[in-house]
Specification:
This protein is α+β, with helices and mostly antiparallel strands and 143 residues long. The chain has two domains: 1-60; 65-138. The protein is built from three helices and four strands, in the order H-H-E-E-H-E-E. Strand 1 (85-87) and strand 2 (91-99) form a beta hairpin. The radius of gyration is 31 Å and the shape is elongated. The chain starts with a helix and ends in a 5-residue tail after the last strand.
């Protein structure tokens, strides 16, 4: 009788340990659910923001070539202190000399957002006085 109790107790202990071992992954997932839910909500919000930005950019009308060149003229003089050089094929070259990182970033962003131009080449060197070099932008063409 004593041996059967020990046998049943041992079997119950082994079955309990097997059950705990099998349920452990589910238990850890259950404990982490709030953190994971918060991460998923944040990811969904970032994706919705990116979607709205993409839709805004798709709806934005492109300026004409002349308007883009005029805007780049203004931005280049304001941010970099020099006029841009028009290149064939709807490209514009902007030489910059000793421009601060903030001026470079703001001018680059202004050109990109206001004219929808994209950078095709940037040859820049950092010096103690600031950034110097050449930026070449490709202006958008209306279809």
């Amino acid at each position: 009788m004593n041996r059967t109790r020990i046998l049943y107790a041992s079997l119950a202990l082994i079955a309990s340990l097997a059950l705990l071992w099998g349920l452990w992954p589910a238990w850890t997932l259950w404990l982490d659910r709030h953190d994971r839910w918060a991460e998923l909500v944040q990811q969904q919000q970032r994706m919705q923001t990116a979607l709205q930005e993409a839709q805004t950019l798709q709806k934005k009308s492109l300026p004409s070539l002349a308007e883009s060149q005029s805007l780049i003229q203004t931005i280049s003089r304001q941010r970099f202190g020099v006029p841009p050089i028009n290149l064939p094929g709807g490209s514009v070259q902007i030489p910059i000399n000793a421009v601060s990182p903030q001026q470079l970033a703001q001018g680059w962003d202004d050109i990109r957002t206001q004219t929808s131009a994209r950078v095709v080449r940037a040859e820049l060197d950092q010096t103690p006085q600031g950034w110097s070099g050449t930026l070449i932008f490709k202006l958008p063409q209306k279809p």
